[in-house]
Amino acid sequence: MTDRHEKLRREVRTFAESEVRRRLEEMERSRAVQSELSRLIAAQGWIGVTVGPEFGGMGLGHLAKTIIIEELARVSGAMGAMVQASQLGVAKILHFGTEEQKARWLPPIAGGRSLPTIAVTEEESGGHVLGLSASAVRDGDDYILNGRKVYVGNSHVGDVHGVVVRTGPGSTGLSAFLVEADRSGFSLGEHRPALGLHGFSFGELVMEDCRVPAANRLGAEGQGLAVAYSSSVLYGRPNLTAVALGIHQALVEETTAFAAKRQRYGGPLADLSSIKLKLGLMQSRLMTARLAAYHAVHLLDEGLPCDAELMNAKFINVEYALDTARNAMEVHGACGLDPSRQVERYLRDAHHIYAPAGTSDVQLLRLAEVALGTAKRQWSEQLGPQITAGLG
Fold first, then answer.
1. Are residues 239 and 341 in the same domain?
2. pLDDT band of 388, cuts 50, 70, 90
3. CATH code of the domain covering residue 338
4. How far is CA 265 from the centre of its chain?
5. Which pLDDT score, from 0 to 100, does residue 382 have?
6. pTM of the predicted structure, to 2 decimals
7. Last residue of a domain, one of 67, 95, 115
8. Contacts (Cβ under 8 Å, ≥6 apart) of 340
9. Which residues contact 67 (CB under 8 A, 6 or more apart)?
10. Over the stretch 169-198, which tens digit does the pLDDT of each residue have?
11. How large is the average pLDDT for residues 278-287?
């Protein structure tokens, strides 16, 4: 942690407390997509935190990115998720874009004028990337795309969507394309609010004979699997880790404040040993989760192999946040069931972080391969030079 990191934390926290917190009640009441707030956050330049200065970005790397997402998620899991999804959309361009594509797409993203997404998941295949059926067929200098994508973070605020579709059979038959939201043949499914993250959109993209220039293809034909996997490992996992960490911090703050103020048996609830034990366990989990998160992204910024650390950080942060959410509800008792209480929102939001970029079971399976010495390529090692080159 440097002085620049701490300054950035103060900047984001001040913004979150002044601009995001006052909108929370309306966000929860309406459950509508927060387009205006998303644009306001993007205008701060934070989406370009891992983009190099040569493309108008901050060039501060993944630890700084973690701090931004964490501080926003501490106030609003939905807006932390919005930023993590946008920065996930940056990954594919940084790692697989040509210099021309980077020069075209990254400056408006870094400047907050364009919000990117990545769209991989489909209804029938779920997290099984090789099961994708959405297709792209070459037609002269264009491709014609057909199919649907679901659970797309920032679906309804995104300006350019990085879709992975099938151009041929097997694992080498997937390719990635940048699809602008205003292209003919592209549309959105109806926004459907879910359990939590109210204000965030993670919906459906529909492509019906959507014609896209070949110049919008990311990488070569057949590199779509690499685009999907590398983006998930190097951005998706640490980004979601940061959202979980911010929610975790909020849970601890909210619960300790409640326990210190609530009077029971002639004194504060926090004086009871049974409550102190829960609070101590929550604090221990939070400290351990933050260490795992920061350590993993520090290694990433240094260009060192860290796929396992990124997996472990996501596993620990998600599981610990969910465990702490349960303890927070126990400390609050019946009060925790009141929708006007923040702890109820944190509990709902935390459950949204479990599945994306691999469930906890997926992380454990991959970590078992590390232990057995059967793990495959490390994306952090393969793309490390690109990551460190973008730091300002």
1. yes
2. low
3. 1.20.140.10
4. 43
5. 83
6. 0.95
7. 115
8. none
9. 5, 8, 9, 12, 242
10. 998 999 999 999 999 999 999 999 999 999
11. 98
